[in-house]
Amino acid sequence: MSSIISNPFTALVFLSLLVATTRSLSSVPATAILRGQRPFVNVKSPLLRVPSTSQLSATEMNTAQENVVVVENPSFPLTVWRFSRPHTLIGSFLAIPSLHALASPSWRALLTKQTAASIVFATIPSLLINIYITGLNQVTDVEIDRVNKPYLPIAAGYLSISRAVCIITACLALGLSFSLPQLWGFTGLNSDGLAMTLLASAALGTAYSLPPFRLKRFPFMAAFCITAVRGAIVNVGFYCHAMSVAYGKKASLLTTALTDSKCALSSLFFGIFGIGEYLPPSPRLTHFTHFPHPPPPLPPLYSQ
Amino acid sequence: MIALMKDVPDVEGDKMSFIRTMAVRLGQRKIFSISHQILSLLMLSVGGSCLVSGFFDKAFLRCAAGVAACWSGIEIDKNARQVDPGSKDEVFSFYMAMWKVFYLSYVALPFV
C-alpha cells in the first residue's frame, strides 16, 4: 500500500480513470445500458425524416414539428463505453472482489488495505483486456454487425475503424503492462495468477477473432474459448492472485486448481454457465468474401 | 451454454452471410431449449447441493445461497417457457436476464 502513496503519478492516473468511468456511466440510464439500447435516435431513420411543408396540412405540421428530435453523435467517452459492451465489463468487474472474498480466510482479512489494493490492481488490467477482446471482435465483424447489431458504435458509424483499432491497441498494451512486475512500481501487487490471466485471455481473445486461427468460425472452438476464459482462466487466475497478494500465501496455479475445492467448484460452475460473455452475441465467418445482400422484395403494388 | 444462446437472435444475418452457427444448423428452438435447460439444471443442482451441505455443516449463509440458486433455477425455467425462440427481441431480453443471473452468482459466491 505504501507504494501507491509513494507514486502519486500512477495514483492520479487511476483516479482519473475512475472518474471518467463513473461520468460516462451517469449520462445513460443503467437499465438502458443493460438492455443494450441506444438512447440516441438514428437520424437516417425514415420515420423521423421531416416531410416537406407543402405536403402537410397545418395540424399535421404541428405534430411533425413536435416529433422532430435533435440528434447529435454521442460523446467520445459514451461511444467508447458502448464499444466496450458494458454487460461483459460488469461481469469482470464483479468477479474479482467476489473471488477475493472466496479466497479470504476470514471476513476480517477481506477488509484490509492490502486486499483493496490487490483488487484494484487486478481490476484495472482485466477491464482493459476485456475491452480489447470485445473491441477486436467488433472490428473484425463490422459487416455482420450492421445486420445483427446495428446499434454498435462501429456499425452505426459513430466510431471509425481506425480509431477503434487505436483504442484496442492502447487497451492491450496498458493491460498487458500490468503483468510485468516492477513496471508500475507495485512489486508487491504482482502475481503469477494475474499475469497468467491477462496473457491467456488476451491470447485466446486474439485467436478467437484474428486469422490465422479465427476460432469463431468453428462453433465448438468458439464455445471452448468462452468456457475456458470464463471458467478456468478467470476463476483460477484471480483466486491465486488473491491468495498470494492479499493473503500472503504461496499459491501455484496448477496445485490450487487441482486441490482447492472452492476454486475448482467455482471454475466448474462458471465454465458451465459459460456465458457468451464478453463475446458480444456476434456471429462467425466461414466463407466470407463479399456480403451477399438478397434482392429486395418487390413492393406489392408492382408485383403483378 | 449461453455461448449457444447468443447466436439464437442473430440467425437472420448469419444465414445471409453463410455463417454456420449452432443456431443456424440445428434450429433456434432446439438450441434455445437446450441452453435454458442446461442453465436451470445447473442452478437447481448447485442450489440443492448447497442446501444439503449447508444443512449438515450448520452453515446458514450457504443454505440461503442454495435456496436462492434453486429459486433462480425455477424462475429461469418458468420465464424461458414464455419466450418465443423465433422472436429476436424476446430471446435477446432473456439473454440479458441471464447476464443478471451471472452477476448475482458472483455476488453470492463468497457466501457459499
Largest interface: A-B, 45 and 39 residues
Extended strand count of chain A: 0
- End-to-end separation of chain B: 23 Å
Count of distinct strands of chain B: 0
What gross morphology of chain B would you assign?
elongated
How much helical structure, as a percent, in the residues of chain B?
Answer: over 70%
What percentage of amino acids of chain B are in beta strands?
A: under 5%
Order of helices and strands of chain B: HHHHHH
How far apart the termini of chain A lie comes to 78 Å
The number of distinct helices of chain A, counting runs of at least 4 residues, comes to: 15
Q: What integer is the average pLDDT of chain A?
A: 74
> What is the radius of gyration of chain B computed over CA atoms, rounded to a whole number of angstroms?
16 Å
Number of helices of chain B: 6
Mean pLDDT of chain B: 80
What is the chain-wise order of helices and strands of chain A? HHHHHHHHHHHHHHH
Shape estimate of chain A: globular
Using only C-alpha atoms, the radius of gyration of chain A works out to 23 Å
